[in-house]
């Protein structure tokens, strides 16, 4: 981590919330909210996600991404990229036309047959060439959901909401595990291309376990790009558009990007977990976030409709 990042982005330990005294829990919650407001990012330690599980996921996803393109394309095309593989250059940031220099694979919520929400979600697709992926990716998904629940409970307490306010929204929610491969750059790639153009995530919060290489940057309120990196055992947490919307922008969505490598030109892998409410959950402004100086900015919308609008904007759904 650069010294600049170290001083700018707060590092918090989740154990202080899950196992701490009431003082430590309060302090954790306050620091989390302050971090989201000040820089949009916090770095989380003590999250309890097993290192082996993270390493195994990287190993298996790398196996998938090194398969021939024709094989990977068999797993493409499920509902605007909601599940399975999305090929190189397809997604672009909201106001850009050049596609990002990445390919990725989405794993979504998997509910038992007969669950009332199971028909709301497309079925996951699993590459038969990497048989172990299903088990390891789903275990990882569950672990990240647990961390997300804890973080959102802390935020709800800090905002004087009932503790499960956000946690109920993400219960059986539409969260997405995205495994990303940014290939080494070569001359055939679009000259204006960047690994991931400047953007905000669509969801409530995003959890990013350590990536395999640097490149992630956040935009400060002062308009300066600053590198952020999670080391082994750390998770970066940031705020997305849905959280910004329901907090009436009291918590802004974090603007970030992934820049091209300057030194060694190798593949980069990362695995963001986008924490989403269930599709019928209403994104409605939290009353305490409406004040005379900050009147209500957005009408209510369901999480499903909001997501659809944004997927059209970033090129994953064609209207
Ligand atoms: O690869 C990363 O570190 C971040 C990726 C990202 O911001 C995204 O996919 O939304
Ligand atoms: Fe992002």
From TrEMBL:
It comes from the Bacteria. Signal peptide: none annotated. The keyword Mitochondrion does not apply. Keywords: Iron, Metal-binding, Oxidoreductase. One of its GO terms (molecular function) is oxidoreductase activity. Pathway: Antibiotic biosynthesis. Gene3D superfamilies: B-lactam Antibiotic, Isopenicillin N Synthase, Chain. Belongs to the iron/ascorbate-dependent oxidoreductase family. This is 2OG-Fe(II) oxygenase.
